Amino acid sequence: MVRYKAIIAYDGTNFSGFQSQINGRTVQDEIEKTLSKIANQTVKINGSGRTDAGVHALGQVIDFAWPTKLPLEKLRFALDTQTPADIAVKQVELVADDFHSRYQAKEKTYEFRVDIGKPRSPFRRFYMSYYPYELDLEKIKRALPDFLGTHDFTSFCSGKSEVKNKTRTIYKADMLVSDTEDELLFTFCGDGFLYNMVRIMVGTLLKIGNGRISEDAIPQIIAARDRNAAGPTAHPEGLYLKEVKY
Amino acid sequence: MVRYKAIIAYDGTNFSGFQSQINGRTVQDEIEKTLSKIANQTVKINGSGRTDAGVHALGQVIDFAWPTKLPLEKLRFALDTQTPADIAVKQVELVADDFHSRYQAKEKTYEFRVDIGKPRSPFRRFYMSYYPYELDLEKIKRALPDFLGTHDFTSFCSGKSEVKNKTRTIYKADMLVSDTEDELLFTFCGDGFLYNMVRIMVGTLLKIGNGRISEDAIPQIIAARDRNAAGPTAHPEGLYLKEVKY
User: Are A107 and A189 in contact (CB under 8 A)?
Assistant: First the structure.
């Protein structure tokens, strides 16, 4: 047996998330079904992490054991064309037998896209969160650096999470405004992210932009270690897992 | 009664086209249903032209008679928020009683988007046509100006069309390549377009780029006045009605 790592993209709109579950169509199930058909035996995959229903990926990483060595492009092409159209297989490479896409991930980058145009674009309804209220973008820009560094992010973690250590290090937190001024692109890079963390960070930043949370409140929100201290969880359709580094 | 003109955008993916038909969900039906509910009486609309199933609009124009004068933004907002999420109402204005969005249209602009990346992007599958074959973009650029001017475009019209006069004038025909080099954006502007005309023009241009039709063949194809002389009809998901001028 050999082990392959693959970089995949998916449109999360019609998935109940990445990870297999009892009900609902998942990315993991679709890929395992395709791999098992190609290999003519059961193939299971690891992913770098779960993504929720409606959340997208530009660079999710998976790995799987495989019976024989194959030309990489042949395997990539077979997997790309045989998975459904909402999954793309961008790259396949051979890795060490002990590679694990979740345990060995060193750095993850997420993007979050917000449609701030009026009216809401029909073309963005599954691909950006919509925010129709007033925004002072300068307030958001001034608040963003307060996320940088190593903190206990309990306040930015869903109460449903069972993870014990909620300390994470954020290397990058920024926002770009599109030339057309109707789209925000947030980028967050860190050593890992808690359940709903990026969505709660964005939900809080939008409240700051709207003036309903003070622009210097983030250090206090972090210090509170209480989910109720932060803003709401932004909608899943704006979130993209962009890149995982090893 | 007064008459309103509205500029609308729609994601054509889940529509059987613009125009009402016996079966299938249409843009016209959805808008007439909403307008009739708001007015509490039957309201019918005219459109600047039909779009096929899967074809999108950034600036389709409609007009309708209405019982009373209303503040424009109030009417726009009511219509925008009460139509389904795949229709957006961008602008509403009061027009002369004899305004007709189809008969008085002077100029139309269409865009056609092609995904030429590898692998095909899951995010573009409903919003761009996909072309995975080799393309010499310079050949396409050299061929495009041959569409300009006044011609009988019978060769670029679906055989199903019942229109008699197939002479149209094309003012603009060009192509932009995205910075990422994985996307083509064609723009065509003219006094009117025949049934499937833009899609057949693009289907022919892609064959020219791929070397299977000569780059100087367009004048002969036009002169043939025969649909079989041109290339295939490109897929509907790449086509956008961008603007209609009066």
Answer: yes
Which residue of A56, A122, A127 is in closest CB contact with B87? A122
Q: What is the DSSP string of B187-234?
A: EEEES---TTHHHHHHHHHHHHHTTSS-TT-HHHHHHHT-GGGS-PPP
Interface with B, mutate which of A123, A126, A127, A242 (most B CBs under 10 A) = A123
How much is the average pLDDT of A57-70?
A: 96
- Are B122 and A86 a contacting pair at CB < 8 A? yes
For residue B58, count other CB atoms closer than 10 A to its CB: 20
The string of pLDDT tens digits covering residues A144-190 is 999 999 999 999 999 999 899 999 999 999 999 999 999 999 999 99
> What is the structure's pLDDT at A188?
98
Which amino acid would we find at residue A81?
Answer: T
Yes or no, beta carbons of B122 and A85 under 8 Å apart = yes
Q: What is the mean pLDDT of residues B131-154?
A: 98
Q: Measured between alpha carbons, how far is residue A223 from residues A76, A147, A149, A163, B31 in Å? A: 46, 12, 14, 18, 51
Q: Measured between alpha carbons, how far is B31 from B37 in angstroms, rounded to an integer?
A: 10
Q: Which domains does chain A have, with CATH numbers?
A: 2-95 (3.30.70.580), 107-245 (3.30.70.660)
Name the catalytic one among A52, A80, A86, A191. A52
User: Average pLDDT in the A44-64 region?
Assistant: 97
Which residues are CB-contacts of B231 (< 8 A; sequence separation ≥ 6)? B200, B203, B204, B205, B206, B207, B208, B213
Given an 8 Å threshold on Cβ–Cβ distance, is B11 in contact with A123? yes
Residues present in chain B in total: 246
